[in-house]
UniProtKB/TrEMBL annotation, chains A, B:
It catalyses: (2R,3S)-3-isopropylmalate + NAD(+) = 4-methyl-2-oxopentanoate + CO2 + NADH. GO terms for biological process: L-leucine biosynthetic process. It comes from Pelagibius litoralis. Keywords: Amino-acid biosynthesis, Branched-chain amino acid biosynthesis, Cytoplasm, Leucine biosynthesis, Magnesium, Manganese, Metal-binding, NAD, Oxidoreductase. The gene is leuB. Its cofactor is Mg(2+); Mn(2+). Catalyzes the oxidation of 3-carboxy-2-hydroxy-4-methylpentanoate (3-isopropylmalate) to 3-carboxy-4-methyl-2-oxopentanoate. The product decarboxylates to 4-methyl-2 oxopentanoate. Its EC number is 1.1.1.85. This is 3-isopropylmalate dehydrogenase.
Length: 364, 364
């Protein structure tokens, strides 16, 4: 019996298509690397709404909590856009994050050498770019109470959300970021709006305290979120690791991803705490969305999901060598000129999802 | 006696230096265009902390409310960085915004032809860029209650801020944005996180209602804030007018400003309601900050403040022709190759703040 229980949640849109290529790599690993997984599959997002009546079912949440890792495709699509807030596909993803306590979202923004030209930024600004954004994922305005829409006696409506962070929430995500910085260039930039928000003042104070107490070897700086948005556009290579809250992290990591010009290439990992049995709750997913415009046409780029799978090998199963193999194979297929539509260069041939999978397996 | 009461608040850092060039243009207008102003001057930010014991004094706030327009330089600097939250220079600016009820912040992101190369983005992505971001400025998480840091019985600290919007707050800023769209390309994109925040759901619903009721001739679209951050990097020219809340607007307008590559060139206007006497509360300021690193060296670019002054002529005093003159003169000095350090090209000569002022007056 395997000790690698993997739950696969293909989700919506291009999710199932890109996940198909992961299955092929899993088959290859079993045969060629003697690494076997115990696989389960489930529904999330619109697929779960249609199939099980909720954006994620209790049974799926239970499976996710029991798994050693979860690999997710993407959620959402026009079909479910007009559903009420609590029933939208996104709620499935948000519930998984919260129930699995996945407080640290790791979003590498890496500019692949072969794809420098795909960026809207000048090559010299982004070539060699390698930032790691650590986004807090289970707190802040995403989950804070009170929240909702109320109608006042005079008919005015009021929409409320609450941004809230506690010291332990700040410490645990900052710790992940400091640890990552140590394995990289040893520089951490903490981002908030301490000039405007008290939650940002607390964030800055606590990150500073933790730095002094446990990580004084890491170079720490602080930056306001608006300035960070600017600096990412101006000179992104100044950053090594960035740590920030849920909402700022949502925007900044997307902006950073777009700098690379290849959203279809970027993986992410969402990590929880290590439990008594040494297991760390973890969910991996590509940064790109469900891409309804190209769904079902075999056009999707599977590399972000394959790289998410590689992150899983590294962070959840300590299979760094196998992760290296996959990451190298991705570099190789790019260097060989294989391009799905999203990373195509004018004039060059465009391959399908399955052809990209073929090329990757061949490179492996 | 003039009916143009103008309060000038130079503020900190390079604020006083760039404001010096505005005074020269005011002198020119008096002499050559027979447009006179009744001028007052006051302190704000660190200068007010040092001089009057608070980031803005009650007397200055009163003067601002009595003026027809306020022109502000910049606030903040390392000297005041360690002051407690409530005493920081920024609080002066935030109090002015709130007390003057300046709910609509207009931030044009314009890429000047002569400066296309200064952008970190590829020329084809930004040349001709002309976006107007309308940011809500007196609500949301910047001012919402409850707020603060509390210590729980077990010693845990909790930082709280409240994101709150009411229907009238949404309507009045959206109305400004729709009106602006009509004078431009007639397209408005409303930005929030309605997939995660109820305040965003309300925002989207109310903008949609207002559109149907009063502005159905304007093309309206909706976008999530994270996607907007990406789209600004990927293809900024897709936008005409963007309307968004205080916090998203802070980040998105800064990112948009940086796309143009010339932060030292960008003005802003913050507008309130028109009162019974037909006067609209208004504050104008450059987008750039106080730039402590170059303060007192005569290196600052005065053009953003001069363009803010031009916006003032247009929006507060209905002097569109005079605003045109100044804007054209700015284009002319750029075309003639005059460059302060921030917009310098390698090899070309760099002029001082005063020399840029000279060139502008000559062009006028
Ligand atoms: C789908 C949405 C709820 C989600 C978020 O806002 O966190 C997405 O944008 C992301 O970044 O994973
Ligand atoms: C100085 C600061 C309080 C301010 C803000 O956050 O609004 C600034 O960033 C701005 O955008 O005008």
């Amino acid at each position: 019996a395997s000790n690698k229980k993997l739950l696969i949640l293909p989700g919506d849109g291009i999710g199932p298509e890109v996940m198909g290529e992961v299955h092929r790599v899993i088959g290859w690993m079993d045969k060629r690397r003697a690494v076997g997984f115990e696989l389960e599959e489930g529904l999330v997002g619109g697929a779960a709404i249609d199939g099980e009546g909720a954006p994620v079912s209790d049974a799926t949440v239970e499976k996710a909590m029991a798994a050693d890792a979860v690999l997710l495709g993407a959620v959402g699509g026009p079909k479910w856009d007009d559903l009420p807030f609590q029933q939208k596909p996104e709620r499935g993803l948000l519930r998984l994050r919260k129930d699995m306590a996945l407080f640290a979202n790791l979003r590498p923004a890496l500019c692949f050498d072969a794809l420098v030209e795909a960026s809207s930024l000048k090559p010299e600004v982004v070539s060699g770019l390698d930032i790691m954004i650590v986004r807090e994922l289970t707190g802040g305005v995403y989950f804070g109470e009170p929240r909702g829409i109320e109608t006042l006696p005079d008919g005015t409506r009021r929409g409320i959300n609450t941004q809230v962070y506690t010291t332990p929430e700040i410490h645990r995500v900052a710790r992940v970021a400091f640890d990552l910085a140590r394995k990289r260039q040893n520089r951490l930039c903490s981002v908030e709006k301490a000039n405007v928000m008290e939650s940002g003042v607390l964030w800055r104070e606590e990150v500073t305290k933790l730095h002094a107490a446990e990580f004084s070897d890491v170079e720490l700086s602080h930056m306001y979120a608006d300035n960070c948005a600017m600096q990412l556009v101006r000179a992104p290579k100044q950053f090594d690791v960035i740590v920030t809250d849920n909402l700022f992290g949502d925007m900044l990591s997307d902006a950073a991803a777009m700098l690379t010009g290849s959203l279809g290439m970027l993986p992410s990992a969402s990590l929880g705490d290590v439990d008594a049995s040494g297991r760390r709750a973890a969910l991996y997913e590509p940064v790109h969305g469900s891409a309804p415009d190209i769904t079902g046409q075999g056009k999707a780029n599977p590399l972000a999901t394959l790289l998410s799978f590689a992150m899983m090998l590294r962070y959840s199963f300590d299979l760094g060598d196998d992760a290296d193999l996959i990451e190298q194979a991705v570099q190789d297929v790019l260097a060989a000129g294989h391009r799905t539509g999203d990373i195509a260069v004018p004039g060059a041939a465009v391959v399908s999802t399955a052809q990209m999978g073929d090329a990757l397996l061949a490179a492996l």
